[in-house]
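Suppose you are handed only these lines of text.
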Amino acid sequence: MVVSVGIIGATGVVGQRYIQLIEKHPLFEIKVVTASDRSVGKSYRDAVNWGLDTPMPNDISKFEVKPTDAKSIPEEVEILFSALPSQIASKAEPELCKEGYIIASNSSNERMSEDVPLIIPEINADHLDLIEIQQDNRKWDGALIKNPNCSVITLAPTLKALDAFGLERVHVATLQAVSGAGYEGVKSMQILDNVIPFIQSEEEKLETEPQKILGGLEGDKILMHNMEVSASCNRVGVIDGHLENVWAETEEKVTIEKVKNAFKKLKGLELYSSPDVFIEVFEEEDRPQPRLDRNLGEGMSISVGGIRETLSGIQYNCLAHNTIRGAAGASVLNGELLMGSKWF
Ligand SMILES: NC(=O)c1ccc[n+]([C@@H]2O[C@H](COP(=O)([O-])OP(=O)(O)OC[C@H]3O[C@@H](n4cnc5c(N)ncnc54)[C@H](OP(=O)(O)O)[C@@H]3O)[C@@H](O)[C@H]2O)c1
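From them, the structure of the protein bound to NAP can be written out as follows.
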């Protein structure tokens, strides 16, 4: 079965990744692309500053960019992939859900809402059951599913593995790529020869989203995991790939070998976009690195390395491609998960 889909916010950094990933996807066919008034009415080719290293798909380049509202979306469309800025998404997404659309969204609005599933399919696919409560609460036939923040998607799988030892406390320092800030995000004069030790609202996301993802679905609520997370975020002059330095403390004393095995044991899924290896564990102390390792598993693997024992626990580094596993790829994976679920 091939499902008709639309991409809302299709001209930005994440929107372009959606186009790249879905264009060759066997289960999804793009029927509409939307963006802001700046782009509406133009051809996709004229509206976008294409920044990827594969050519813009010829058929999509000729699409006319539509406004982001229900009347501009062809009836046959069933799933919308969203890459809208969150303040725009907070109004547009609920309106589209009311019209019956299923939305797999990257935007940060509503990630922590009690009735919104915040999904990494390999970790908490069961949280999709929140859709029933969402549809009841909000009186709509559509569904809103979020993927986590890009740095959280990199970190949370490693935390899930460590939770086998009773995860209590996590400290994380991120080194985040410029593509994470969106197309207009960071000026080259600010970021070249520099590190910016601040990313608006990023630390709060890292300090709250993992507890929801690793939480348990009890009745109609997520019982948050009780680990403490503290974060410090930096923007660095890398195009793609967020690297993170993590310090974790667990109830049970762990060794490097136990931690490596726990990472390796965390199994991936068999969805179309699932990587062969979910968490790639490096033996080399100086890996993973963004330029060398961000494309592992076609950008969908998480990689870890530099694992060592510290006085209080374990320290390691982890990496993922922020616009693939951390954004568009994450939400395409959520779309694939939905297609195989009772919610579709
Ligand atoms: N970049 C990442 O790595 C990343 C990772 C995870 C999550 N996210 C989240 O994903 C979303 C998109 O991020 P991005 O990096 O792709 O941002 P971006 O490059 O700034 O793109 C924003 C997109 O939204 C459209 N848009 C802006 N205002 C609009 C409006 N009023 N109505 C309809 N469409 C509008 C833009 O269209 P125009 O071109 O017409 O302006 C563009 O297509 C954000 O919520 C971001 O926080 C991003």
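What can we learn from it? The mean pLDDT is 97. Residues 150-321 form a domain with the Dihydrodipicolinate Reductase; domain 2 fold (CATH 3.30.360.10).
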